[in-house]
Amino acid sequence: MQQMVTDNTRRNLLKAALVGIAVPVLPLGCANKVMSTRKPALIGCALQGRDKYSVVIADEQGLPLKQLPLPSRGHGVATHKTLNHAVAFARRPGQYFIVFDYITGETITLKTTKPNRHYYGHGVYSNDGMWLYATEGERTTSRGIIGVYDVLGGYKKVAEFTGFGIGPHEVIVMPDDKLAIGVGGVHTDGRKPMNLSSMQPSLSYLDATGELVEQVSLPDHHLSIRHLAHDGSDTVLCGQQYRGEPDAYPSLLAMHTQGGEMRSLQAQLEQWARFNHYIASIAATKEWILATSPRGNCYGIWSKQTGLLEELNALPDASGVIAYAGYFKISSGAGGVITQYSPHKKNKIQSGIQWDNHWSRIF
Q1: Under CATH, which architecture does the 265-357 domain have?
Q2: Which one-letter DSSP state was computed for residue 266?
Q3: Is the pLDDT of residue 258 over 50?
Q4: N vs C: which end of the chain shows fewer Cβ within 10 Å?
């Protein structure tokens, strides 16, 4: 029976993905003549109403150019530095990732999980573009896996890295080619946590062969390390989901440089309470760190030098953020797009898109 359900699911996912091949992906918003001057710059998953989901390609202002239907709700997106490839990952416990051409909108390939596996919603390309790394898990144990896929070989899985913990969420590639993994430490049944009293989150580093070379943690084991970014150099920013006492509000952001200790970023207790125990997306420039909280309907800006919160802004369903040319672009589930140049200096437009979770930049 399990095999039949899995086969049916795969067939349904494939059928849904093929819609992206069979049906032209139409430009949105402006006339074709105007559209021709706008280039793809941002990609993120979006909601389109009840049980309808898509991945949206937008210009540098955050205004949509094309969208591709998704079989189910998406989460993170990986973008290739030289090919016109992007990968949308299903929200955990996800059953698929879909590779598409962000210029034409055509589907390149759809990968689905084996019966006892799922995707955690994130992945990243290697610096040389040869490999795609995806966070994966074993359903019955939440054993953490990094799936390694051969890009030029049609995204065939060629290796699996494991042995770093359970419940990995986001993986990023550092400039020195190491993988940094936000290991949540939570065993789940679907989305239900099963081991909150014994969870063991970590920030883990693997080398290119999958060997665990460094692993650090925070003092409070109820801080599930989930979302990551790096500053373009050697510093990792990690955002946490707090799974402890409801009326406790610890720091939800930390910085780490390989070989050093975790450094928690600072804010007042009532300011951390605004984030409702959850950090979604993070980005950093040379001076500033920005983190969003869709659950808290807000985002904050920290000084990278002092580690202190400089500004806290309300934003309904604050979702994705990317850093570009020294400033930030922030998305909202209510359709807003914020350009944040520095603390207290920003502008806002409406995109008409119900952005969901994360944004990625096209290189």
Answers
A1: Beta Barrel (2.40)
A2: B
A3: yes
A4: N
